[in-house]
Automatic annotation (TrEMBL), chain A:
Lineage: Bacteria, Bacillati, Bacillota, Bacilli, Bacillales
Record membrane topology: Multi-pass membrane protein
InterPro entries: Na/Glc_symporter_sf, Na/solute_symporter, Sodium:Solute_Symporter
Subcellular location: Cell membrane
Family: Belongs to the sodium:solute symporter (SSF) (TC 2.A.21) family.
Species this protein is from: Pallidibacillus pasinlerensis
Entry protein name: Cation acetate symporter
From TrEMBL, chain B:
Pfam family, one: DUF485
Bilayer-crossing regions: 34-55, 67-89
Entry keyword annotation includes Transmembrane: yes
Source domain of life: Bacteria
UniProt-listed InterPro entries: DUF485
Keywords: Membrane, Transmembrane, Transmembrane helix
Protein name in the entry: DUF485 domain-containing protein
Amino acid sequence: MNPTYFLLLIYIIVCTLIITYWAAKHSGTTKQYYIASGTLTGYQNGMAISGDFISAASFLGVVGMIALRGYDGFLYSIGFLVSYNVVLFLVSEPVHRLGKFSLGDVVCSRFPGQKMRLIMAICTFIISLLYMIPQLVASGFLLRLLLDLNYSVSVLLIGTIMTIYVVVGGMIATSWVQIIKTVLLMSGTFLLTLIVLSNFNWDLTLFLNKVEEGTPLGEQFFLPGHLFNIPIEFLSLQLSLVLGTAGLPHILMRLFTVRNTYEVRKSLISATWIIGLFYFMTLILGFGTVALLGYEALIAKDPTGNLAAPLLAKVVGGDFLLAFVSAVAFTTIVAVVSGLAISATIAFSHDIFFHILKKGKTTEREQVRSARITAFIIGLLSTLFALRLESINVTSLVSMTFTVAASSVFPVLVLTIYWKRFTSVGAITAIVSGILASFIFVVLGPYVMNPSDGLFKTEAIFSLYNPGIVTIPIGFLGGILGSLLSKRIKQKETDFNSFYIKAQSGYSSRGES
Amino acid sequence: MAQEQLQKEKRVIDYEKVQSSPQFKQFLQRKRKFIIPMVIFFMIFYFLLPIFTSYTTFLNTSAIGDISWTWIFAFAQFIMVWTLSSIYVRKAASFDKEADEIIRDQLK
């Protein structure tokens, strides 16, 4: 391994471990461990949200996709950005007002009960793990490509570091790792963008001409139609992406780490700026790769295009910049998987251990201890899974996570917050039908049933890779039918009234702490 | 302070009354009138982009020099997200004020 890589990597690991050590001293209570006592400022939280959200798949994958496919690669990222408007307008403030630590808290503030809590916890667990495993698998491949480590060593390294952050430092350490990652990622991409543009003397026309020369698509590179050939498939994917973010537990969890709704809004608006500017820069990096490196040279190194950004860094900035970009990719991966690990941890230790197994009667110390044990087990399990699932299709799992989130958590949240006739039975049927539909359609779809490389070597029964356009309505329908068909189990009007007033005005949640 | 706390605990809040009070109803209506059209607007504005690029080609014509409408529309999405979120933040501050008034007038 190149010594520059090694030093930078060690430097980052040491710095973040120091933060973790400091965080550990402030993680004695559940409030500190789960939500950093709600003490992050809006800007800090916005950076942490971006750190949670921009995965290595975005950083490396989107740059590569733009380099290979041009316009369509860029279109892909816009859906992610627009999804933040859905979060801001529809769910952010009510979720902050209703929840304490977890999504279970939010739904149970309207439909109290252990069954409800258990289902929300399981749902959070499924979504977080579904997302975590492909991230770990992808990280294994990336580190192998970037640092010449072998797959198992890479996964073990990332898995161990993630587990240490979460077990020792809880939400405080996770947040700060994510903030550092955002700073590194944004400054790294900004630097790279400037260098790329300066290579063309800041002349955009020259730049675009070079891009045209570098790609086999020629002028077509700047026009849509090179990635998504089936329109309905593309629309279905976009629908899952736009609605999915508002159902991702590890993102929604970040609405609890600030003091009040004012800070919630500030977090989300800073996140949209950071994420938007980031995608904007990936466009220039993608173009730059084509202009400076060329299509042929890129696919010769890596046919998936994932190495576009690092290769570009090497061309324009030599070994040092390459090492820096690799370090950024490394931090990106660890920050994302830590966020996922802590959201799965909270679902288990707060909802299942504290509320269901202990019936809400244990000490703070006991809870934090159980959280740490849970975090350790989750870290261990996900690392083991990732080690075994080397050959799994990463893209399919990532898009499936968004589909599951958009068809289960999102409908339940929207109906819980806004629909008066919604019942607890409806909430359960929404979750169950959304999750089941997502799994069934993915299994029947071409990711699993594929004559060439599927698990079952047959023609797919359902033709879409991304079933969101079918499963999201199924989730909503499940909730609506479940509510209309179930008898209202003594759900008194006053219950909804007090819930609704709390959700809309923040009465009783504001003022506390 | 302690006395206030005591008074608060003694009173049972009639949520139904609050819910049906004109003050709360107006507050909700204002909120709805803002949020619903906005959400409909940005969902349509966003989905027109993939719909147009996948089913039609008329956006492929040039707008300014070499830059085609597809790019203008794509960049407009960024502007849209940033503008709408700023509008929301500004608007929500006034909703917060109203909510505080309701809490002060009816719930304390």
